[in-house]
Input
Amino acid sequence: MKLKDIVVCVTSASADNSAIDLAQQIAGDFNAHVACSAIGILQSLLFYNEFGMSAAHVEHLRQEKELIQRFWTGLKDNLDNRTPLFELRRHSTYSANLESLVAAIARHADLAIVRAPDKDAAQPYSQMIEAVLLGSGRPVLVAPVHWTPGPVGRRIVIGWDASGEAARAMHDALLLASPDADITIVTVDAKPGSLDHGDAPGLDIAAHLARHGLKVELRNEASLGRPVHEVLMQVATDTNADLMALGGYRHSRLQQTLFGGVTRNMLRDTPIPLLLAH
Output
């Protein structure tokens, strides 16, 4: 099955340009349909008393809806100047329903694209990424906050921990791989003889990809005290990678929140598009 249906979820006409640029690049490379789901988020909750909604609340809600309308108008102007043409889909939802909406949107595409969170604006991007990753059954491609448009899928790094999530991410990354792609499989502190990795960490999965006619390099890296995400990013720099693929949230979101986690660290720091699958 080929990559033919892409959706990019955005909440800002300007701040989400990197995600729109990435969607445009991939849609052009694969001659795919690309839709932009423009999600206006209402922050106000509906409060009623015996007299109905207060005048102040009604006015605040009106202002929020006006801002959303401006967002849609500005986004349409942005998209109208792009090739291939984007289908613009307009949505509005209360913040409490955002994850359910995004998961439903993503289920109807091959790939969902969302901008990465950053230190100053983690939300709503983290919510949307987790919604696709954990609620849609589809991979999510995360666009760095600052990304220079260019080819994607020619030099791919796959973080391999022999988990089911990593296997899914590897498979989904092949949708984005060019026919002559260079693929680097990376393990970090993998122990030979372990139940997951076997006697030769990474060798079996590298051989599997090679049977598909792909050029594959295997790198078994020692962390030497460095965080795993730093090791992966160093390999991406060494190989001049344009895409990284990882299994997302192998541990629970609570553990990721308490201890950081590879997924969250990669989301915050990735300089290249990051494909996550669960």
Summary: The chain has two domains: 5-143, 155-277. Strands lie at 5-10, 33-42, 87-94, 111-115, 140-143, 155-159, 182-188, 215-221, 243-247, 274-277.
